[in-house]
TrEMBL record, chains A, B, C, D:
<dbReference type="InterPro" id="IPR038765">
    <property type="entry name" value="Papain-like_cys_pep_sf"/>
</dbReference>
<protein>
    <submittedName>
        <fullName>Transglutaminase-like putative cysteine protease</fullName>
    </submittedName>
</protein>
<dbReference type="InterPro" id="IPR002931">
    <property type="entry name" value="Transglutaminase-like"/>
</dbReference>
<keyword id="KW-0645">Protease</keyword>
<dbReference type="GO" id="GO:0008233">
    <property type="term" value="F:peptidase activity"/>
</dbReference>
<keyword id="KW-0378">Hydrolase</keyword>
<dbReference type="GO" id="GO:0006508">
    <property type="term" value="P:proteolysis"/>
</dbReference>
<dbReference type="Pfam" id="PF01841">
    <property type="entry name" value="Transglut_core"/>
</dbReference>
<feature type="domain" description="Transglutaminase-like">
    <location>
        <begin position="164"/>
        <end position="230"/>
    </location>
</feature>
Amino acid sequence: MLIRLGYDIRFYMAARTAFVAMLHVHPSRTDDLLEPDHMRIESGGTTILPDSYLDSFGNRCSRFVALPGELKLTSSTLIEDSGAPDPINPRAIELPVEQVPNEVLRYLMNSRYCEVDSMLHIATDLFGGLAPGWQRVQAINNWVHQHVTFGYHHARATKTALNVYTERTGVCRDFQHLAVTFCRALNIPARYATGYLGDIGVPPSYTPMDFSAWYEVYLSGRWWTMDARHNAPRIGRVLMAVGRDASDVAITTSFGQSDLTKFEVISDELPGAVATQ
Amino acid sequence: MLIRLGYDIRFYMAARTAFVAMLHVHPSRTDDLLEPDHMRIESGGTTILPDSYLDSFGNRCSRFVALPGELKLTSSTLIEDSGAPDPINPRAIELPVEQVPNEVLRYLMNSRYCEVDSMLHIATDLFGGLAPGWQRVQAINNWVHQHVTFGYHHARATKTALNVYTERTGVCRDFQHLAVTFCRALNIPARYATGYLGDIGVPPSYTPMDFSAWYEVYLSGRWWTMDARHNAPRIGRVLMAVGRDASDVAITTSFGQSDLTKFEVISDELPGAVATQ
Amino acid sequence: MLIRLGYDIRFYMAARTAFVAMLHVHPSRTDDLLEPDHMRIESGGTTILPDSYLDSFGNRCSRFVALPGELKLTSSTLIEDSGAPDPINPRAIELPVEQVPNEVLRYLMNSRYCEVDSMLHIATDLFGGLAPGWQRVQAINNWVHQHVTFGYHHARATKTALNVYTERTGVCRDFQHLAVTFCRALNIPARYATGYLGDIGVPPSYTPMDFSAWYEVYLSGRWWTMDARHNAPRIGRVLMAVGRDASDVAITTSFGQSDLTKFEVISDELPGAVATQ
Amino acid sequence: MLIRLGYDIRFYMAARTAFVAMLHVHPSRTDDLLEPDHMRIESGGTTILPDSYLDSFGNRCSRFVALPGELKLTSSTLIEDSGAPDPINPRAIELPVEQVPNEVLRYLMNSRYCEVDSMLHIATDLFGGLAPGWQRVQAINNWVHQHVTFGYHHARATKTALNVYTERTGVCRDFQHLAVTFCRALNIPARYATGYLGDIGVPPSYTPMDFSAWYEVYLSGRWWTMDARHNAPRIGRVLMAVGRDASDVAITTSFGQSDLTKFEVISDELPGAVATQ
């Protein structure tokens, strides 16, 4: 399956402003790209070339300085996807912490929006008595999916997992933060993921496309995709970045005032297309 | 100057428990060590050898599984120190974010106990009007030092910078979290540090020695030591670990119930000693 | 000046639900009414008569049980108003607490959305150094007005004064909660008020009318109207209820699930009208 | 049974400070007093007579202005008590809200330390499925008693029910705040109570006596004593004050800086005594 990916994101700012963007397909998917994954940056009437680097989580980041006026970030690329839904493995097991690799340990810890320390007892009350493994993670995913109501007006920048637990409302990221926090509180490594997720294989949502958030859990020695927002295997996720929570993988971070003026995301299957590699 | 460093830390636990410890002198100080920096681990009547690794912040970590019963972590080592107080450089400047190195950018972001997003306005109100640079960081340090009251009974595991700002009480780590958060909110990279700090050059405190927390700010292209708790240059700091906040540099993390039964830290100048290298 | 007041508020509910409404003109304004201030309650195809009582703050409350289906609350009344703007008295003084009447003391205390205990230091930092009296209250009002941005999408049920202080956004009630909390933290009695406030004497807002919130401070032995949202004297406020914060004076409280389906408020000056008493 | 009640509470303050004290036996117990319930106030070398009033909850309050220096509040009185333990009535029922008296409705609402709005979902998850009535309240009491750990070092002035729920630690008042909030979230009126509670009929605690907190629930048309801290019927409670939470019934409130220097409470059964009325 071929998926056309892209975006057109614009900001207006009054002053020179440093930016960091995480608007690339994740390095783990580079081999699937059929066109260059190039972010075009237009600012102050000129094209800017960013500095590119990998952050400590392995995400590809771009940094640049936007000039006063409009900033336009655009991209269009093509990726080959297996077309298979998110894998399910009911036999995947929770590893004892001692078997968790060094570089995965960080995904057991507290982070800005995942206050594991404050939710330890709650997670234990709810899920501590369940048999460890895939089914327990699925129980967490079910719980969050069933108890939290989706709504764009429920979003706010500082909303944490505990806020989601008490308010029971949120957007994509809020669902995932709560599930991630429950997992970590039970010593199951979990990380936040962001990327493209179109309406492939599901009824069209007819809402403006956005990037999507999901999360991954580490079971049986590898990462598995989970999604407490949708709670059903999906086709066509294209990962952009992973981190401990939304604070690590902000699509864009501006170090100064910037106003979003346009936000379009494309993630469409190319019907009938045949991949040419 | 020679400083004798060491500790004797004991836990009791009922079950096998995975541990991560950050109880080594920081790699940046390895060349100053005059004796091996070895952590002895005794557990269940035997000596355990840990796995050692560097985390994403460059700290040396040890992981191991403690057996039921007593866990005893001990060390004694000797380090040569310049004997010079923390450097002061009133001409050190704040770098524009675009000049901050890639690997330093993370120290501008939110973390568990440093909610930059919630304290942006407060920091701007208090310090936004001051001239950038060393003096502004010093103003932050002064403010925290003067407005927060120290007391061990004010400690709690989940206390964040915002809590410290409203409660105006805390221990070492709380002072530093608040100052770190103010700095980041002003786009000054700041990181949390933990290590040894004895009563060298100051009146003895007569309280049981503990590890100490301070923080570092990135000005003029390098890190500078700051300490909102003491707010005066000190002699004999020996760094153990740096991170975004206390959650990244916990001295020990146990993945399961463990009860601290003994906690002794040593950080003494060897009077009259001459370093032999 | 004559002001036509009224509302049409509707809910849908699936089950029998107890309600308390505070939808009457405040007893202190009863003498100004030129028509009966009657709330008509239609529920389950019939007209319901409520029980009426005064709460401990002196507000007129109505309680009733709504039947499954639509609940319709309507009213239309006419009030005579002085037409004078909110009074200003720069010479009004803060009373020492010992001179505050017994029944006013409660307006110095903590309440759900006004965490005086958490904001004591902040209020002292900001306003503790100012000369007591009207000017200090005006300084508080100015500060809130200037630092908080209005927006309906910033509303949430659990938002407290401290939240407003950190987020710097909110609706009417949030502005007043923050100002009220600052006042109380400085030992100035302050209470939350809700009522009608039309666009009399100001440019029309062209937004759907709503009830409005303001607050009152106790200076020189009486209550004075303050409004951190508008920060300018207004004409035509008609008080409905006072309390410590929004939790005490909810327009309607339903003890069970109810969905708001319509909300219209009227507060219009009758042009050219002459009061007939 | 006769119980000797009394206290010796002292403060030091640098400046004239207004005080409100709730240090009297509750009006509902006045008829049981065998000696006058007189609070002696010594301040600045003289004896002060307070103004006395009933607050909106019906508690007897004393207000006065303490002079610079030591403030000494003392009392000794004698009360006759039934000697019966807190009554238990497994058949007591929850009233539908519509049958709750007007003056009891306030005990269903939010208050400073009882954030009903934030804990609605949590309470429903835990107790919403249980049959209404005494047994459900008992289930709440059991839950809090079993899940929260007592410790004086866990006290802090701003701790709310939600904090207690996440931290699972606290003192008397914290246990009761959590239970009260659970009850209200389920539409069971609940109020906070403070008073004397000696070691009558239980093993002596050997800790310094303090006033105690408990709570009351409104079932079958009357208030019943509950105590999530002890979770067992006790003998010899003497009520001093009731309110929505600890903020309403502070033993003393000082409007200015005051330092507690002594705190002794007496609540002893007079062995073998015979009441003379």
